[in-house]
User: What shape does this take?
Amino acid sequence: MENNLEIRKLHLKFIAGDCTLEEVGKVVQYFQAAKQTDDFPSVVDVLALIEKTPKVDETASKLIVRRILSDSKSATVFKRNLWKYASIAAFFIGLIGLGIFYQQIGFDDLNDIVIPGNAAITLELDNGEIKVIDENGSEAIVTASGKVIGQQNKTKLKYEGEKKLNELTYNTLTVPYGKRFDIELSDGTVVYLNAGSSIKYPVSFIEGLKRQVFLTGEAYLEVARNVDNPFIVNADELNVQVLGTKFNISNYPEDKRAEVVLVEGSVGMYRDNENFDKSKNVVLLPGLKGSFDENTLEIETKEVSTKVYTAWVSGELVFRNMTFDNILKKLERTYNVTIYNGNRILGRKPFNASFKDRDINEVLQSFKKHYGIEYSIINNEVKIN
Assistant: This one.
């Protein structure tokens, strides 16, 4: 903990609630040393104290502390002598709320570090009820009538194919910026949902009917083959029909173009008010990208490197000959930050870059180092100069 940059990074992770148990221990040790007392409560103590307070009285500062150990709920909670620390814990919470905490832990200026936002993944059930998904938890998925139809295990939902329903009922999964989630549908189709995306899908497909889902945002699909029941992804005015294949589809509203990149098999692209006809409609083969223009309603195709469009599934960002403005859009979605570009000439320039397991601060530093880009930061907002 002697390196100042290491301290700053670790404390930032601590505030965002992303520390491992070992890292939390280092931060607590540092903070205890700064307070010059062995009697100061641990982070676990403070979290336990907050759990005992009425939830209706939660403030933003309490929520910050509540998230500190969100990835380690199985940790032992040390309750011994807890209430002896009540006044100190209240002081600790107050420091966070006033911003004094930043000074106490050894870094006065956070203006060169981005603090990503945090929003919840939600699941809308067939009766309209909206559930918040705990990414570290496990829970059964049930219909309005109480029938168990699937299981959530951390960042994946899996629906049970053997439990057929008499009519189509839908769930809708919404993933905010900064997060990802996977679903295995009742037919065995796997959907990897990217940040800022939403998908509406039947909890169970009915034999003899088309398997259709509705997507906003971006997803990579591995579709289970069923010749008698084609699989259709609706992306607003575009339909993509497959029998069994692997492909990526991007349909973010602000992009004004829906793009389909085929990895395996074949897919047909056609207007949502049409019936698919392979003799008239566009059919993609592996290695092709189809782009649907929402204004002209035309579909263009070209050969591409599929890895560029599917790398996000394995946690990698790949930009090839992409304008800086479009790169910034992807960074906003991936890291849940807001980026303002004050340099319009720079925004139109194409760039190449690749990042694997990097946080937003490292990405920005890389652009600064290799391309001379200047920026400033306030909390989770970045301004490109």
